[in-house]
Design a protein that fits this description.
There is one protein chain. The protein has 168 residues and is of the alpha+beta class. The protein folds into two domains: 37 residues, no CATH class; 125 residues, no CATH class. 48% of the residues lie in helices and 15% in strands. The protein has seven helices and five strands. The strands form two sheets. A three-stranded antiparallel β-sheet has the order 3-5-4. The protein has a two-stranded antiparallel sheet with strand order 1-2. Helix 2 packs across helix 7 and helix 4 packs across helix 6. It is flat.
Length: 168
Amino acid sequence: MASHPTAFEWTGEVLAPTHPVLAKNRFVQGQRYLMAEVEHRSGKSHDHEFAWLAEAFKSLPEHVVEAFPTVEHLRKRALIDAGYFTETQIDAGTNAAALRVAAHLRTKSDFAVVVVRGPMVVERVAKSQSRRSMDKAEFQASKTAILEIVSDLLGVDPDVLVQQREAA
């Protein structure tokens, strides 16, 4: 499978690769390939999220600043809280072993949420919002969810966060 998407253009009769030399090296004549349309999201939308998050980070109440030492901590925790995460469950056998496993997992990532439930360790890692990982619709949904979570944390209306950034 190709590691990078290949652009095609509809000619009215066929989908022709926009870079035929690259396509010739990548595809085998006569072999069938599945195609899926990918909706591109704008860099503007992507940058917008990071801009209002940076403004929101500056306004964090003192009692939560320690939990979110960077904007990235805030964003990833909001993603997890919104349900945009991958989860791993580890049965460590005993509560004591689970505590040791959890301690080890916490040293591997500042961004993961690690919880011990008896002998079980649950690790949640935020999904990537990269263009490769999320399509336009999922990114927009995650962006909206993060906005709602952060605005709730700050005790302000989501529109206030967006307007603050636009005014800055």
